[in-house]
Amino acid sequence: MNLNKIESTKSLLLVNPHARKVQDNLNLALTYLQDFGLEIICKEIEYPQDFNHFIQYYKNQVNLIIIGGGDGSLNIAVDSLVETGLPLGILPLGTANDLARTLEIPTSLFEACQAIATGKKHYIDLGVVNGKYFFNVASIGLSVDITNNLSKEAKRQWGTLAYAITASKMILKSRPFMAEICCDGESRIVKTLQVAVGNGRHYGGGMTIAHDAKIDDQRLDLYSLEVKHCWQFIGLLPSIWQGKYQESFGFRSLSGSVITVNTRQRRPINTDGEIVAYTPAHFQIVPLALAVMVPRKLTTEKEKLNPIIS
């Protein structure tokens, strides 16, 4: 008996109709999922609160929740997913799809559906900031400005390139701020353009939070962007993309399980593309908090030594 497969074929598919790739792919995705033997209840979600409403309503009728959309849709649904304990299937139909990228879920619609229906459960860590779960990254500063100025039209037209275009515009307008960072009990005061705390590996359309980050390593990875002049940020983009930071070039990187960030003025916190909280910020890691369906080829070093059976 395979304990890693989903227990029944009945699944709830929640779709963000405004996600970049939904209109062209939803009907085909439904066909693929049904051909793989899944019985699908499909709901298109017009209002964010409806993600949690439908998860709670159907929690005793299904054995799998499938989210069709991007990282923002997943972020909205994550609290109810944790509360119900139901496994998650991901249809990466958004713009960045950073969680899918971290979990090596294919961009091919057929292969993504195959991973949902025939893959294995893989338990991942979640980050928490001020009581709100997040998958990929939470940030204060520049990323909030980028989120506030990144339009749906730009994402639809330019895809992940829209993040870089918006970032290049906002970096020239951003101003550094003072923050007190405490990581596992050790404090320092910094002047920074951005503080980012990552749980997963990728964010912002493929950028890397830390070169060795994993979504099941039971740690949070922080970087603080402490360049003296805003224009220096442009030259640091390759390092940000790869997650390889050098303090001499204006980066500070830390890792830990509990992190706090205090700022003089109350500042918004962006988690997975959604502004959900404000400083002071308290971050912590929740190990192996959620099961996600992934392709069977995905095997971490930890699993090789000690397989996790759901």
Query: What do we call the CATH topology of the largest domain?
Result: Tumour Suppressor Smad4
Query: Could you list the spans in which at least 5 consecutive residues all have pLDDT below 50?
Result: 1-6, 298-310
Percent of residues in helical segments? 25-40%
Mean pLDDT metric: 83
Work out the count of structural domains. 2
Strand content: 25-35%
Going across the biggest sheet, name each strand in turn.
6-5-18-15-8-9
**What CATH architecture of the largest domain would you give?**
Sandwich
Using the coordinates above, name the CATH class of the largest domain: Mainly Beta
User: Could you tell me the radius of gyration in angstroms?
Assistant: 19 Å
SS content category: alpha+beta
Overall number of strands: 18
Shape: elongated
Taking the alpha carbons of the first and last residues, their distance comes to 12 Å
How many alpha or pi helices? 10
Topology order in helix (H) and strand (E) letters: EHEHEHEHHEEEHHHEEEEEEHEEEEEH
The largest pleated sheet is described as:
6 strands, antiparallel
General description of the model:
With 310 residues, the protein is of the alpha+beta class. The protein has two domains: 134 residues, 3-Layer(aba) Sandwich (Rossmann fold), CATH 3.40.50.10330; 155 residues, Tumour Suppressor Smad4 (Sandwich). It is 30% helix and 34% strand. The protein has ten helices and 18 strands. The strands form four sheets. Strands 6-5-18-15-8-9 form a six-stranded antiparallel β-sheet. A six-stranded antiparallel β-sheet has the order 14-13-10-7-16-17. Strand 8 and strand 9 form a beta hairpin. Helix 2 runs parallel beside helix 3. The protein is elongated and about 55 Å long.
